[in-house]
Amino acid sequence: MTSKRNVYLDTQPIETARQILMDRFKDRVTDVETIDVTAAQGRVLASPAIAKLSSPNFHAAAMDGMAVDAKQTFGASDDAPKVLVPDETGFWVNTGHALPPGTNAVIMIEHINIIDETSVEIEAPVFPWQHVRKMGEDIVATKLLFPRGHQINAYAMGALLSGGVFQVKVYKKPRILIIPTGSELVQWHETSLDQMVPGQVIESNSTVLKALCRDNGAVADRHPMLKDDLETITTAVDQAVKGEYDMVCIIGGSSAGSEDFARPVMASLGRVMVHGVTMMPGKPVLMGDISGKPVFGIPGYPVSAIVAFEQFVGPLLRFMQKLAPVEDRFEPVALARKIASKLGQDEFLRVKIGSVDGRLIASQLPRGSGSITTLTEADGIIQIPKDVEGISETETPTARLLKPLSAIENTLVITGSHDNTLDLLADQMRRDHDGINISSSHVGSMGGLMAIRNNATPGRGSISRPRRRFL
Amino acid sequence: MTSKRNVYLDTQPIETARQILMDRFKDRVTDVETIDVTAAQGRVLASPAIAKLSSPNFHAAAMDGMAVDAKQTFGASDDAPKVLVPDETGFWVNTGHALPPGTNAVIMIEHINIIDETSVEIEAPVFPWQHVRKMGEDIVATKLLFPRGHQINAYAMGALLSGGVFQVKVYKKPRILIIPTGSELVQWHETSLDQMVPGQVIESNSTVLKALCRDNGAVADRHPMLKDDLETITTAVDQAVKGEYDMVCIIGGSSAGSEDFARPVMASLGRVMVHGVTMMPGKPVLMGDISGKPVFGIPGYPVSAIVAFEQFVGPLLRFMQKLAPVEDRFEPVALARKIASKLGQDEFLRVKIGSVDGRLIASQLPRGSGSITTLTEADGIIQIPKDVEGISETETPTARLLKPLSAIENTLVITGSHDNTLDLLADQMRRDHDGINISSSHVGSMGGLMAIRNNATPGRGSISRPRRRFL
């Protein structure tokens, strides 16, 4: 083993890295395909959808009753009822039926006195078009239903079919190949836990990234795991880029160590645009251009991998198919303790959030980029900008929520020493009091006392009152 | 055709109808199945997930460099460097490697002077566990990873795999059969638009409901369309309930007309629990219990069908698999004009929403429950409670947003006469200025002038300044 090292040549702030990506790939929108409307949920229109059929496509009864020419009813009153003859001057209709020719109104069944099979009586007139859904009331043929760029949801599928549009042109889902690399990795389905030896790690990043791709409308394939070997990684990336894939993510080896091959692979096949972003976690991210296709080197630490994906890969995947950016929910939070942060890098700080006396209180989770549980336990992420050295208790930074606000508000916050019985209790609560969560922060006894002093956790007798959820 | 009519026997307020549903079906949680974690995105844990493996499962180098027993480095300084012998007193490691036996710290590569193949020099000591990720730093085997009821997202999949949990017990996705009924219906894939005759309607509700089921984690099948015929509908429902389905939705015929068969079907096979809910649209909804399984009669008007689904079917589907309720976004809105509403029924009023001078202004869309476009054009829904007769311009009701707030804020609001060129412009804007929308309300010239007077639309020269979106 040698001590040879590459260097980060192109470390960039987040905004600059994004701009470089966008400038380079602004034309890489995916191709257009024509698909059935019934298969188009979630897809984005690549051309405007114009109605081909009016809806309704005829004048339709809006009530159950008798269709008539309104003129026939004029003058009818209690004193002078009018008689109508079924199938001659009046026609039984149910809601939705086409008005028979010559009719233009519907008398509600409740207002009709049936005399016998051949005559009925009415005691009030109807006006023309009363209780009628006129042709085109909902949709007029030739009308623009949706402009290009519109994302098709369940409602839109109904409008398209009703408007006689059965196929639509949409952007293809981007296809992405995820290549996990690292000689230390083992595959979960080939692993017996008893036989793992020190140094082996279960490969999990490709599963996480595939799921995140799905969340962003893309179709991800996983390449079989590769050892840290320049040649095999180069071959795999080369084939993927020459093939059907719109994007490639190499996981692992994106840093500047002696066995980090993502950069040399990228440099040999194409061009490295960014190596290193001033953010934590996720600094050793690599962005390149191979034959005009985006190729990313994703750091191997799980939190770094996710941050790199969410900052760059996900937004680019959405852009490629014209999906609107994810609408995150942000809320101001108070801090349980002040937070220090390094100048010169944006930090994505994972926090637990509890609702205490109507305020949202955030407490910091461990910062390690290798700890996936700092993300799964987090209720939110505070992004501390690179020109900020820290946040004091008197500030109220904004947190991106990772859980619905109602879930945070329905959480019982417990701060103090770790006690395994709290884990058992958390699970029991889910069984017996569905929708109520327990969140315990393990900060030690002193930390718990400090939290009470700072009003960052409810003191004795004032725990939050979680709300019951419906159904 | 006869004038025979059924009656609504059991019209209930929304809350009561929900309570009846919940009381009856609170035990109908779906069965549990064991699946691979890699296939578990979005699913809900039916039993707690306990880590089987620590992560890391060994003491791991957190930096590239040399692993040593920290004691060996004590006393090293500029003046008195210490010499280490590779493979004897120090061991080259890369980030992530297991520490060799007997070592407990890592010296960063940057702090090592290489003398030759057999000796290196250091000028500062390291302390025990410096630059080491200790075994269990992220996950300790036996620890509770997630309690039952936890929904598995991408992050959680990573934590589960890292913790040696490769399969999980989750609730099955509910299976639902959707049966479109109505003699007036035609299937889109069997329809030639030229050959449609008055009275025929393209069946679209089953597609909309299937998509909504998917949004709620359920798997929906569509039964071939059925005519309004008591016997065939009865047979279809009977078979579905006796088969694998957890729920059945009959679309159409849920009202009390002479050809409305959903209620008689339900009454003959089981029990009708609710017929009619005091809401608009969606009043003629039908809820029944056949052999302990929920069966719904869904009104055939498209907006009624969607409201009935969203108020009752969707929440029950989520409950059955322990999925948390949808977290809707609500925002206070000002009204462009006062709104009247009938006492005695909750109304779901579709509104367009524009951001004018920093306020959200809502204007009412047509109320017809047959017009699906009132939903596709809506930016939000205001629920007017049944004990409220209307809302004045001075009130600020709360609207459930149907679109991301950013999309509403990036929309250019145009109020006035309808002009087809606005439709063309809306489409061009999407092509040339991605992320910016045009929304035109067609209320006539006078309506436009009134909107300006009420500050409900920007006057000349003060149109909103939509923001550009990233990437």
Throw out a few tags for this protein.
homodimer; Molybdenum Cofactor Biosythetic Enzyme, Chain A; Molybdopterin biosynthesis moeA protein, domain 3; elongated; alpha/beta; 471 residues; Molybdopterin biosynthesis moea protein, domain 2
In short:
With 471 residues, the first copy, chain A, is an alpha/beta fold. Helix content of chain A is 22%, strand content 27%. Chain A is built from ten helices and 31 strands.
Structure description:
With 471 residues, the first copy, chain A, is α/β, with parallel strands linked by helices. Chain A folds into four domains: 14-29 and 173-320, MoaB/Mog-like domain (Molybdenum Cofactor Biosythetic Enzyme, Chain A), CATH 3.40.980.10; 32-55 and 137-171, Molybdopterin biosynthesis moea protein, domain 2; 60-133, Molybdopterin biosynthesis moea protein, domain 3 (Molybdopterin biosynthesis moeA protein, domain 3); 330-453, Beta-clip. The first copy, chain A, is built from ten helices and 31 strands. In chain A, helix 3 (205-215) packs parallel to helix 6 and helix 4 crosses helix 5. The longest helix of chain A is centred in the middle third of the chain and has 19 residues, at 302-320. Chain A is elongated. The two termini of chain A are 61 Å apart. The interface between A and B is large, with 116 and 117 residues.
List strands and helices in order, with pairings.
The structure is a homodimer of 471-residue chains.
Chain A: H1 14-25, E1 32-36, E2 49-50, E3 60-61, E4 65-68, E5 82-84, E6 91-93, E7 105-108, E8 112-116, E9 119-122, E10 132-133, E11 144-146, H2 154-162, E12 167-171, E13 175-180, E14 185-186, E15 201-202, H3 205-215, E16 219-222, H4 230-242, E17 247-251, H5 262-269, E18 271-275, E19 279-280, E20 286-290, E21 293-298, H6 302-320, E22 330-332, E23 334-335, E24 339-340, E25 346-356, E26 359-364, H7 373-376, E27 380-384, E28 390-391, E29 398-401, H8 405-409, E30 411-416, H9 420-432, E31 437-442, H10 444-453
Parallel strand pairs in A: 13-16, 13-17, 14-15, 17-21, 19-25, 23-26, 30-31
Antiparallel strand pairs in A: 1-12, 2-11, 3-10, 4-6, 4-7, 5-9, 8-9, 18-20, 20-21, 22-29, 24-28, 25-26, 25-27, 27-29
